[in-house]
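Duplicate of earlier report; Agmatinase input re-posted below.
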Amino acid sequence: MRFDEAYSGKVFIMSNPTIEESKAVIYGMPMDWTVSFRPGSRFGPNRIREASLGLEEYSPYMDKHMEEVGYFDAGDIPLPFGNPQRSLDMIQDYVTQLLDLGKFPLGLGGEHLVSWPVIQAFYKKYPDMALIHIDAHADLREEYEGEPLSHSTPVRKTCELIGPENVYSFGIRSGMREEFQYAKESGMHMSRYEVAEPLKEILPTLKGRNVYVTIDIDVLDPAFAPGTGTAEAGGITSKELLQAIQYIAQSDVNVVGADLVEVAPVYDPTEQTVIAASKFVREMLLGWVK
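Output:
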């Protein structure tokens, strides 16, 4: 993969022209090969970039301007259509290179399985890492209809890699009975339905820890984000997710990387989902890149 020149397509607002002067790197993972309901999240990264053009560069939440961060939009990884394992290998290799360069990787999905190879890359560098997982779904299945490579399995795989006691899930309101039983018995933390306030209570226990954050856009109620593959009624508001991002920014955890996944623009002709997602990305950049 080359990082020495700007992406030729659309870029997130105020992207630096080169990677050398950048602290963070935005990259896209346009994969939806294993979805179980509605495809289309492979188009999410570019539509989020397009929506960012309507953003203000200043955030009143963080009291920061985009020019204070310095980041590079590297574009999308050219993943092989329909080949999950090869795609995951390419993502892991790509993120490993970013970490070797000392950058803060901020990924745009794509289905949630794309987070798994990213977490594998981070674990090699940060074996003491913890995961903050914000989502409507538990994603704790071992397989889906016999297939272990599924968007419903990345958090279970992560528990097995880094230890369930290092996994913290918030906003969960959907999953199999066995997934909720696993969460209860394994020692992982799971907060059902809500995000911001339970997260605020947990963050002091992660003080000084290296933390990776993965956000599935479907944690939002479909009223706020209809553009996703597996929408779940009963979700949180955009305001609460912004508050959660701010709580993390104000905490003493060391966020080492993050991703935002499962934006499927085709199901939202109003574009409110990509507009919200682009704002969340801005806040993540301004709040979490030190």
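The two ends are 25 Å apart (CA to CA).

Merging into the original ticket.
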